[in-house]
Amino acid sequence: MKTKVAILGGGNLGTALAEGLARTDDASSKYDVTITRRNTKHISYLEDSGITVTSDNAAAVDAAHLVIFSVQPTQIEALINEVKSDLDPQKHILISTMAGVTGEEITELTGSGFPVIRVMPNTAAAINQAMTCIEQTPHKEAEQEVVELFETLGKTLVINSELMEASTVLGACGIAFFLRYIRAASQGGIEVGFHAEEAQLIAAQTALGASALLLNSDSHPEHEIDKVTTPKGCTIAGLNEMEHNGLSSALIKGIKISYEKIEKIR
């Protein structure tokens, strides 16, 4: 029997989760997914993948076991008030993808008794390549169900509560950071002679290869860098020029600024 999942909020992230769950045989055979949005025409195409699309949040919750809150933090109070009478602590596991909203704050709105687990995936869930950080809680059985769900969408890591905001910056915002690097590398490729689509292909596949080198081994980035930096070579010349212009420090500062922004939202 399939586990019923309600994704409340069909924005970019909620849609990515639904697309990923419909994309693989493993997930689609295990989960029955409903996604909600006020204006369903924007996500009606998901029905072609076997996902139920509706604007009725209460009905989605009533039919579900796993309830994912995937709305903006400013919308959560109104959303919970809308579905509160349909929430049952004996039936539902509540999952939040909202940055800056604690489990305690959700419990204040829903009432006690619910297992509430915060997660931070990213939009690569749409192609089952997400990095999802999952908050460690006392609710171990519920936590395991959540881990199993998000394992179908990519890789997971269970972390302490105090690191959830940091995971938002490194994992979720990180998608944009790495895409900006690929865009810049593509523009550099055009400068040295490639057509735009060729440059993007080379830059994106090279970034994928670099990531795979680390994920498929216990190697450190500098170890892999050393393999392609020869004395007086072009690689070290380019790396040093980038560092002279602040590549690493700019990225580190950007991550810190994003984190400070989340801290101000809380």
UniProtKB/TrEMBL annotation:
Pathway: Amino-acid biosynthesis; L-proline biosynthesis; L-proline from L-glutamate 5-semialdehyde: step 1/1. It is found in: Cytoplasm. Keywords: Amino-acid biosynthesis, Cytoplasm, NADP, Oxidoreductase, Proline biosynthesis. Its EC number is 1.5.1.2. InterPro entries: 6-PGluconate_DH-like_C_sf, NAD(P)-bd_dom_sf, P5C_Rdtase_cat_N, P5CR_dimer, Pyrroline-COOH_reductase. NADP(+) binds at residues 8-13. GO terms for biological process: L-proline biosynthetic process. It catalyses: L-proline + NADP(+) = (S)-1-pyrroline-5-carboxylate + NADPH + 2 H(+); L-proline + NAD(+) = (S)-1-pyrroline-5-carboxylate + NADH + 2 H(+). Residues 162-263 form the Pyrroline-5-carboxylate reductase dimerisation domain. Coiled coil: none annotated. GO terms for molecular function: pyrroline-5-carboxylate reductase activity. SUPFAM superfamilies: 6-phosphogluconate dehydrogenase C-terminal domain-like, NAD(P)-binding Rossmann-fold domains. Pfam families: F420_oxidored (PF03807), P5CR_dimer (PF14748). This is Pyrroline-5-carboxylate reductase. It comes from Fodinibius sediminis.
